Amino acid sequence: MKAAMIFDMDGTLFQTNRILEASLHDTFQLLRDEEMWEGDTPLETYREIMGVPLSKVWKTLLPLHPFHIHERVNEVFQDKLIQNILGGMGALYPHTEDLLAYLCKRGFPIFVASNGYPRYLQTIVEYYALDRWILSCYSIEEIDSEEKGELIRKVKEDHYLSHGIVIGDRGSDFKGAKENEFLSIGCAFDFSQENELQDADIVVGDLIEIRDYLEKVK
């Protein structure tokens, strides 16, 4: 069997930056309306931590708010994200469909392993008909821990994968690949960090470069 291709979703296949600002602003506006937040929406803080599980996001953005507020805010945020996807505000990264079609044609099994919530991920998959190529989409909500390496291990074990390539944009993707003895490809896109990309085995500036790499090594 050819190496499985395990993609992150946000900042790798899907341009989350296109819907992030509006979704986060609307969420924090609700907090302002209920006098639970003052000041600007902490967009830049979120950009810096993009890729961590959402529980850690709310602990970082709302450190003084109790857990039940985190849960409520997260539900609102998920609703806003989905509304904006269905409203056509999002987009796949350039050459996403070209690459997935190429991988599928060449017999590479394709999966997604993401820190995103299931209904959010499913909305993206359905809206862009990614199930034409992606065999299964895994959410961090499916495991007890919040470690990307454990989620990748679940994909690996569920599908009896002996080798694979993890494609993502953040350090958790590259660390998870290493923990499972998989190759990692770093995407130098919107939320990537230069110091984290140094941990990837390969770095690309465009998804189609993955096709070019596979053509060279086949």
Structure description:
The protein is of the alpha/beta class and 218 residues long. It has two domains: 4-15 and 91-217, Rossmann fold (3-Layer(aba) Sandwich); 17-86. It has helices at 17-33, 43-49, 54-61, 67-86, 96-105, 118-127, 148-158, 171-179, 194-197, 208-217; strands at residues 4-7, 110-114, 136-139, 164-168, 183-187, 202-204. Helix 3 crosses helix 4 (67-86) and helix 4 packs parallel to helix 6 (118-127). The longest helix has 20 residues, at 67-86. It is globular and about 60 Å long. The mean pLDDT is 94.
- Tell me the domain tally: 2
Q: Residue share in helices?
A: 40-55%
User: Biggest sheet, strands in spatial order?
Assistant: 3-2-1-4-5-6
Total helical segments: 10
Rg measurement, Å? 17 Å
Short descriptors:
218 residues, alpha/beta, Rossmann fold, six-stranded parallel β-sheet, 6 strands, 49% helix, globular
Secondary-structure blueprint:
Layout (H helix, E strand, L loop, with lengths): L3 E4 L9 H17 L9 H7 L4 H8 L5 H20 L9 H10 L4 E5 L3 H10 L8 E4 L8 H11 L5 E5 L2 H9 L3 E5 L6 H4 L4 E3 L3 H10 L1
Parallel strand pairs: 1-2, 1-4, 2-3, 4-5, 5-6
Briefly characterize the structure:
With 218 residues, the protein is of the alpha/beta class. It is 49% helix and 12% strand.
